[in-house]
Amino acid sequence: MLARDIMDTRFHTLKPHETVAQAVKMFQTASREEGKKIFGLIVVDEADRLVGMLSMYDILLFIQPKHMKIWGEMEDLEPDRLFEDLLGKVKGIQVGDIMTTEVVTIGPETHILSISDLMIDKHIRRLPVSENGRIIGMVYMSDVFYHMLTQFLD
Amino acid sequence: MVFIERRSVLSGMLVQEAMRKRVIRVSRETTLSDCTNRMVKNKVAAVLVTGEDDRPVGVVSKTDLIGAFYADLPIEAAAADIMAAPPLFCFLDDSLESAIDLMHARGVHRLYVSGAETDRVIGTLAYPDIVGLLYRYCRACGKSVSKVRRGTEDETNSSRLRVGDVMTTSVRACKTDETLAEVIEELTSHRCGAVLIRNPADHAAGVISKTDLVIAYKHGEKTGTPAKVIMRHPVLSCDANDFLSVALQQMLLKDVQRLFVYKDAPARIVGVLSLSDSARFRSGSCRACTSGRLIVGV
Lengths: 154, 298
Fold this sequence. Notes:
heterodimer; A: 45% helix; B: CBS-domain; three-stranded mixed β-sheet; 14 strands
């Protein structure tokens, strides 16, 4: 069982110059059209080359106040007002500003055991499959999981 | 012999109490574009450049990136081309006071922290972290306003420091149609973190900070672009009569390094309150702290 056999060839992409708001919309569109919850999208340049990956984690990390510990100690705050101000920071920020630029990819001939090993080792839940510099599919942890374990269920 | 020793709330505190353990690292080959990405995402003003065996070799700060922008260096240039070397260090068990003195003397906004192994970086110490510590200390203090809110209101309020007591009164400003190159010149010649942008009627129209400039550089803006294109508005500000504690809280929670200070009306900016000024002030937010700073010894 190889990456080629289990990868999902329907996937959505982002461009580095798109805004965070556009990225959030794309998360929703991708989840609806691919029929699964999408937590991360690959980012490609104009020539369709992979330049990064943007996950929900990247966006949350950016929005999170740096001095969060102090928040926890204040009971006399109006959290809603401050929350609005925090979201205001997102204006003018593009996908390329906060995406993860070091992305691990696999080839289509990678064996499922190597894929699961990579996912465990590097704490990754999704891996783009790359062939001749182009992304041809995505392998998600759930695909690996069910392909490896469904036979035990019967 | 009688002597007067100047002390602050920070006396006796160590670097390890205020430092952050998360250090954002890049390699010599990392592009300036990717350095910017790490800074924006992690909300830090500098990244550590490491070489062989993860040893620290330099620092790339927002100031360095702005210099590269000004010099028209391509955003794909390498960290090694512009980094400042070597990084400045303090030790885990240095006093916070000596660390602040070092930062002030060398004109930097952060120090890297090392422990027993002097070539290993285990944390960073920056002004906002020190203010954060002061602020938490202040809230926990027995004289804290939040604890004595009921009762002696008048007495408490008169002892609380106000923004006007601590702010810097020189405000650096540019006009909306001045270029980013002129904004950079204003920022670097006065070593400040942000300039106010005034419209032709001389009212505060927006702000450009180092972060805004670094993001503009990454987005491919040119240094000839007028200030009004990238300035942020509204201007985050507070009243000179506001309590210092309230202003500090706002800065820490909104992740901003400074608030502009107005008097009478929001368009009349008279000063700036920055987190680094507040850290150098070395006091909590009421006079109980400042009076405790003078200790008479024999």
